[in-house]
């Protein structure tokens, strides 16, 4: 990208109507369409542990990485060296992601921080004129999703959410959506999303913060608390850190930083279910907690202790989708999605797609172009490829913020229903809970002082 095609932060802020009267789209939004098709975009990654490196590693074939940022000096240093081996040049490393946003040579950022940081980093990146690829689940609250939608619209930035089941895994999920849309199971009667449960923990004592980790910055917008961990170390994926902690890989077990399995795997499987139903521009009307287990005692929707994991360990949630189609989200059974209709049923996950409607494809294949129609165009090589195609065309990619947020609202509502222990009625047009002031208070959270979103 040449600097002349890049809007300045001042132009973006003015165009977004932030701190200025009126509103207009940027006059000179950066565009790969105006440059050579062979020109590689310049990326930066913010948040590098585990998934951060995973999405970076698969993107070297499409982009050059000029900078990394992470609050853990050890993670940052290790991945700078990894990148140097991959692309022949080391990216600059920063402890503070804002130094990346200040640079004029970076076209897009990939965000793989813990969930409670996503919105702040993503909004500030867009206001700085960067396109954004952000890991799922995109938000910690429904209000955050609305804010991101507003800033995407105002800035004209391209925004890809990392729900890569829409593009990868041998296109099984695209095939599943195409089967439903082509009527191969008749009218849908029920969809079940098996997403697994979370583990509980013993009491986690306060311990010294590991050397190299900026704990206060890691907490960021979340409430101030002590670093906690048990001595046992995690093995395999996410290894080299405590298995039981309120940081590192285990932050997913805390409502302060995530939505547990409901938002983690739910953001994948509920997404495909919602997409297949054609409900990605609306949402449910009711969410009922059929059964659930919480690892600690709750009062008024909040855990009464702060030294143990607090997200649900087991659950079954019944969601009334448009047309009163039941969507069941459960921690039981196989991880994947079961589609049931009047003419048959099939099951799909990352490793397989099975059932008679799938077997029947051998003698009665899907119509030509059915997969491409689901996708909305030529199928990309992977999620990053789709993102860069959208950057070139200045269009939104296959996993856009609007459809993602509509799906994720179902997951957020499921968690709220568990925390309060009651059924919730949802208005998908107003995007608020009907007749329940206490439940509506969970649609947003305040950021810790000093970590509010800059520029709004």
Automatic annotation (TrEMBL):
<dbReference type="InterPro" id="IPR000683">
    <property type="entry name" value="Gfo/Idh/MocA-like_OxRdtase_N"/>
</dbReference>
<dbReference type="InterPro" id="IPR050463">
    <property type="entry name" value="Gfo/Idh/MocA_oxidrdct_glycsds"/>
</dbReference>
<dbReference type="InterPro" id="IPR043906">
    <property type="entry name" value="Gfo/Idh/MocA_OxRdtase_bact_C"/>
</dbReference>
<feature type="domain" description="Gfo/Idh/MocA-like oxidoreductase bacterial type C-terminal">
    <location>
        <begin position="202"/>
        <end position="452"/>
    </location>
</feature>
<dbReference type="GO" id="GO:0000166">
    <property type="term" value="F:nucleotide binding"/>
</dbReference>
<feature type="domain" description="Gfo/Idh/MocA-like oxidoreductase N-terminal">
    <location>
        <begin position="76"/>
        <end position="162"/>
    </location>
</feature>
<dbReference type="Pfam" id="PF19051">
    <property type="entry name" value="GFO_IDH_MocA_C2"/>
</dbReference>
<dbReference type="Pfam" id="PF01408">
    <property type="entry name" value="GFO_IDH_MocA"/>
</dbReference>
<dbReference type="InterPro" id="IPR006311">
    <property type="entry name" value="TAT_signal"/>
</dbReference>
<dbReference type="InterPro" id="IPR036291">
    <property type="entry name" value="NAD(P)-bd_dom_sf"/>
</dbReference>
<protein>
    <submittedName>
        <fullName>Oxidoreductase domain-containing protein</fullName>
    </submittedName>
</protein>
